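sorry for the late reply, my laptop died twice this morning and i had to redo everyting from scratch. anyway the thing you sent over, i finally got around to it. pasting the sequence first so we're on the same page, its 114 residues, then the predicted structure underneath. double check i copied it right bc i was rushing
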Amino acid sequence: LLHEEPAAPWTVASLAGRAGVSRATLAKRFTDLVGEPPLTYLTRWRMTLAADLLTEREAATVAEVARAVGYSDAFAFSAAFKRTRGISPSAYRRTATSPPPQPAGTPRPGIAFK
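ok and here's the structure:
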């Protein structure tokens, strides 16, 4: 469900209801199988999707990416992204889309060395 509808307003209760188990059962089984609670996993999954969108859709604003992964507030999304990724969405986009650094002494295209 989390992968099929990552932007849905999930709660443990709504996940449990869709799975046909109690909240406690869902939380315990999910944590036992996945290694982290369901909503922690959902946040990481959303941030993975957001990172992909930030690099694949350079014209999309941070607010548009936030909405695509389930956040109605760009500020809350930015805080969650920075908390999980250690970098703001805008900085991530800049570093992910910039060319890789050249090793020292490697000529760059358009620059002539004598």
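The mean pLDDT is 89.
thats about all i looked at so far, will dig more tmrw
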